[in-house]
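Side project, low priority. Logging it here so it doesn't get lost.
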Amino acid sequence: MLTRELLASYIDAGAGRIKADMAVMGGTLINVNTGEYYQADVAIYKGKITAVEKDISDYIDEHTKIIDAKGKYLAPGLIDCHVHVECSKMSMTRFAEAVVPHGTTSIVSGLDEYISVIGVDGLEDIFKEIDASPLKVFWALPYKTPYTIPKSTIAYNVTAKDHEKYHQDSRCYGIWELVREAVMTKDQDTLDAIVEAQKRHRPIFGCSPLARGKDLNEYLMSGVRVDHESYDHEEFLEKARKGVHTIIRESAVTKFLNENVRAITECCPGMARHTSFCSDDVHARGILAHGHIDHIVRLAIKAGVAPMTAIQMGTINAAEAYQIDDHVGSIAPGKDADILLVDQPGTFVVETVISKGQLITEQGENRFDYRIPARQSSLTDTVKHALLTADDFATHVNIEEGTALVETIHSVGPFMRKRRDVELDVKDGIVCPSAEKDVAMVSVIERYGIHGHMSKGFISGWSFNKGAIATTASPDDNNLVVAGASREDMALAANTLIGQGGGQVVVIDGKIISFLPLPIAGIASDLAPEELAKKEIELEEGAKEIGSSLPDPIFYLSFLPITAIPDLAITDGGCVDYTKLSYFDPILEVKEK
C-alpha cells in the first residue's frame, strides 16, 4: 500500500538519490506509447520503474542487481483483458505459475465463480493469495449474481448494496461482464449497480454477443465501454465504430481472433489502437502447449497485424481501456516494474519475466517461490447435498408404455445450442434416452445446501452411448451438473463429487474411469499446472470412451447452465429458453401405446 513515506522514497529514486534495486541493461525498448524501438536501460526501485534512459549510471550502484538484456527486446508485461481464472481449475497461485512465465503479469477478472460459492467477503483469502503471487489482478465486481435469467441458486447474491460498498474499495476497478439481457430487462439491481459505478467513474465491462443496430444502441446506453464477445468481424467493427473498446477473444474452445482481426487487417487498421486481447477461459494443457496472451500476440502477427501494433494490443491498449494505465501497460517511470525480455517483436518468444519488480523467470528458468496457502474450511466445504439414487435421475411421465416427444438442448458448438425435438420411448413410466437418436440425460443439482433443487432435461449432439460425466465447476452458478446415458452411472458420478467436495468425473458401467478433485470451492485445485494438464487429458479420454464426439465434453457440460448462451440452457431451476428468458418443460407430449 502506498504511504507518504514510500511515495517520498519513489520521488528520490526517480531523481537517482536512492539507487535502484534492479536494472535491466543493454536491451532494445519496445516503446508502446510512441511505437518506437530504441536502446534503453531501465532502473527499478521497490517494484516501480524509476528511469528509462540510454544511460542510467546515476541510478545504480554496487548493490543494484543487473539483468543483462543484450540482444533482447524489452516489452511491457502483458494484460489479459477478461479471464475467468476459476474456469482454468487452477488456484490463483497455480494460475500465476502457469501464465506469468509466458509474460502475463496482469489480468482483469471478476472472480465471479468464487463469489458464487463463497461470497464477496470470502474473497479476502483470495486477495491475500493474489498479493503473494507475481500476478496482478484488477478486480471488477459482477453487476449481480447469479447472472442466470431466470435466477438460479447460488451461495451468494451480489446486489446493488455490494456495489455501493465495494466501489469505494480501491481494489475494485469497475463492473464485471454486464450482459445485454440485464440491460434489456432493466433489472433493478443492475441499474442500481450501474448508477453506483458511474457515481465513482468506474468503467463498465460488457458482454454482448450478436448485438447489432438498435439492440447495440440500447445496450450502450448503460455506459458499457469495453466488450469481449463478437462472433464476426462486422459485429466487431460496428462496436468499434460506436465507441466500444473491442476485445478479441481467443479462448480454449472459442477461437475468434482470425475472424475478428479482419476488421483491422481488411477494413479499418486505425481501430487497432482501441483493440485488445483476452483469453476468457483457458486450461492448463493449452497454456503449457501454446502459451497465454503471448500466444495471442503471435497469432495476431501471423494474421497480418504489425508486431508493434500486436504488442500494443496486448499492453497499453488494454491498460487504457480499463483505466489502469497509471499502473501498467508500458515501460515508463512511475509504472509498475513489469518487464519482459523477448527475442524479437515479430516472433515474440518470452525468455525472461520481471513482475512487481521481482525476477520471476530468467531465460526460461523459474526464479520465484510459488507457495500454496493454507485453505480454510469455508473454501473447502462447499458441496452440501444428500447422496442420490438412480431413480432421482429418472424423468417420470403419466403413462407406463409409449413415447414422449421431448425438446432437447442440442449442442452445435460451445457457445450455441439449438432446439431439437426427438421422440423417445417410455418404459415403466420413465422417458428413456437413446444412443441411436443421440439423446442423453442431463441434470443440475443445487449443491449449497439451500433447498436441494434438482432439474432434469435432455441433451443431444453429444453421441453418448454409455456412462456419465459430472462437474461442480459450472459457471455461472457452479452447481453440480451431470449428463449421461445411464441413470445408475449418473448417480455414481454425482455422489462421487458430493463425497469428495467437488471436482470432475467420468463413470462407465459403475466404475470411476477418471476423476479430478477440485477441493477449492468445488471449482479449483492446487495441483501443479503439469499435473492438472495430465488429469484434464485423462478426463477427456474418459469422456471419449463414453462415445462423445465433442472436442471437450467436460467443458461443454460445465457451460450448459449459462443462460446467456443462445438458445437453450439448464440450471437447477429447470430448462431455460434464452429467447424468452423463461423455463420450458422438456416433455412436449406423451403418447400411450
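Brief comment: The CA atoms of residues 469 and 506 lie 5 Å apart.
Revisit when time allows.
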